[in-house]
Specification:
five-stranded mixed sheet; Alpha-Beta Plaits; 2 domains; Aminopeptidase; alpha/beta; six-stranded mixed sheet
Length: 483
């Protein structure tokens, strides 16, 4: 089984699949062909996808309707960061030798030591997350019990999760067509661990949530020689950034698991070119992470922080500034360029809709700029205890939340409703659509390694090829016995 996981990992990694490219759109056919030895393998197109992408299913029919789904994404980030080694980025064995030569000067000592040990294998997408898919397929091939197993490979996790969002109705349709009862979904995504691997060798019973909080600022333009005659949109946005950046009020803790503090991912005024007129408007968005909070709660906290920023700006400028939520405009955007990122679509929409609403006084509009990723958590204690007992002999730890954003947010048991998020997202229903929450029991067990999304991305090979498939089989066996 270890050899098979290794061979499959190299095969999957050799297929380029950068998000949004023609390669990503072509990979499902390669994967479906590779899975054709199962009882049924098929491709399911993502409706209306601008890049023509699909998801891939493969069914191994058991004697029982009860089914474990093994899932993960096959898209990757680009590999131009490898520079002169880019042609080797998808060839892990050759890349190892090339990287060792490049690191011989003493730079990146941990990466060099890892590669010299023989326990780590580099390559774009190998860690994130084709080795996880390979382990799932290898375990599926080896399994000879009563359960049915369903493999699901999805597109576009790295950008918009179009694959996972489309997979919810596709999974329901597959279950209905084939008479399957989904007992557990195992996401196979990777975990980064810069230490001894103890934080990577874990099962996670849920996944952290994310809301991309945003603000559109309308200022009052003035000549720079008379700055107090107006309100500089760039300055007002700076006060918002200062209030929200790293604000502990927007973080959460569960035991010793702490959600990341909010971070500004983009902040820019709307000026084009040079003149001495102050900016009329500005736009920014922030990454915020949740364990239990709903979007409504996130917006409430953000509004409190924004009110402090507005008060500071009013005191400095002497002008009254309105603070409101996007929903109060009562408008929605019509998207004309789906190739733009969702935050870029939101920025354009906010500007156009503020003009449509005839906002001509200094104003801060709060809302959301992208797809919400609800926090999810497996709450069934009996099921958690079964999984815990299954993984314990393999030396795995247990945590509540997968620390990175993952497709589990769509499959699992979500916290809170999304109505407030929908009302305050300008491009909801036009730039993207959201499925109903899957609501299935969902966990993550995947490979671990270091530095993914960089040219030093590397997989801890013994765990991925030897341990991980065995862990998956043990969990599947526990689910079988529980029925």
């Amino acid at each position: 089984m270890a050899l098979r996981a290794y061979e499959l990992s190299l095969l999957l990694t050799s297929w380029p699949s950068v998000t949004g490219t023609a390669d990503e759109a072509r990979l499902p056919q390669h994967l479906a062909d590779a899975l054709s030895h199962f009882d049924k393998a098929w491709i399911a197109a993502i409706p209306g996808d601008h890049a023509g992408r699909s998801n891939v299913f493969a069914l191994k029919r058991g004697r029982s309707q009860r089914t474990v789904v093994l899932t993960g994404h096959f898209d990757t980030v680009p590999f131009d960061d490898y520079g002169d080694l880019a042609e080797l980025a998808l060839k892990p064995e050759q890349l190892t030798a090339a990287l060792l030569a490049k690191l011989a000067s003493g730079t990146h000592p941990l990466a060099r030591a890892d590669l010299e040990s023989g326990d780590y294998l580099p390559g774009r997408g190998l860690l994130d997350m084709k080795a996880g898919l390979a382990a799932g397929i290898a375990a599926m091939e080896h399994y000879d019990g009563a359960l049915s197993l369903l493999f699901l490979g999805v597109s576009d996790e790295e950008e918009r999760s179009a694959g996972a969002r489309a997979a919810i109705p596709q999974l329901r349709a597959a279950a209905a067509e084939h008479g399957l009862e989904i007992a557990l979904i195992i996401n196979l995504d990777s975990i980064s661990d810069q230490g001894d691997g103890s934080k990577g060798r874990v099962v996670t019973y849920g996944s952290i949530g994310k809301q991309l909080l945003c603000a559109h600022v309308v200022g009052k333009q003035t000549h720079a020689g008379y700055p107090q005659d107006g309100v500089n949109a760039a300055y007002l946005m700076a006060e918002l950034v200062r209030a929200i950046e790293l604000a502990p009020e927007l973080s959460e803790a569960t035991g010793d698991e702490i959600a990341a503090l909010p971070a500004t991912l983009f902040a820019k005024d709307g000026k084009q070119g040079y003149n001495v007129t102050t900016p009329a408007h500005a736009f920014a968005y922030w990454n915020t992470m949740q364990h239990r909070r709903s979007g409504a709660e996130v917006l409430n906290v953000a509004e409190t922080l924004a009110a402090k920023a507005v008060a500071a700006a009013e005191a400095r400028t002497g002008h009254k500034i309105r603070l409101t939520r996007f929903a109060e405009l009562g408008l929605k955007a019509q998207i004309t360029d789906p190739s733009l990122s969702l935050p870029d679509q939101t920025a354009l929409a906010m500007t156009a809709l503020a003009q449509q609403a005839d906002i001509n006084a200094p104003t801060v509009l709060l809302g959301f700029a992208s797809i919400p990723y609800p926090a999810v958590l497996l709450r069934d204690e009996k099921l958690r205890n079964l999984i815990s007992a299954a993984i314990r002999p393999h030396g795995l730890g247990e945590v509540n939340y997968f620390a990175g954003i993952s497709d589990m947010s769509f499959y699992g048991e979500a916290s809170g409703d999304l109505s407030v998020v929908a009302d305050n997202t300008p491009i909801w229903g036009t730039g993207f659509t959201m499925p109903d929450s899957g609501g299935w029991p969902c966990i993550n067990i995947g490979p671990w390694g270091r530095d993914y999304h960089t040219w030093l991305e590397r997989l801890h090979a013994p765990y991925a090829f030897e341990t991980l498939p065995k862990v998956l089989l043990s969990v599947i066996a526990a689910i079988e016995k529980s029925g």
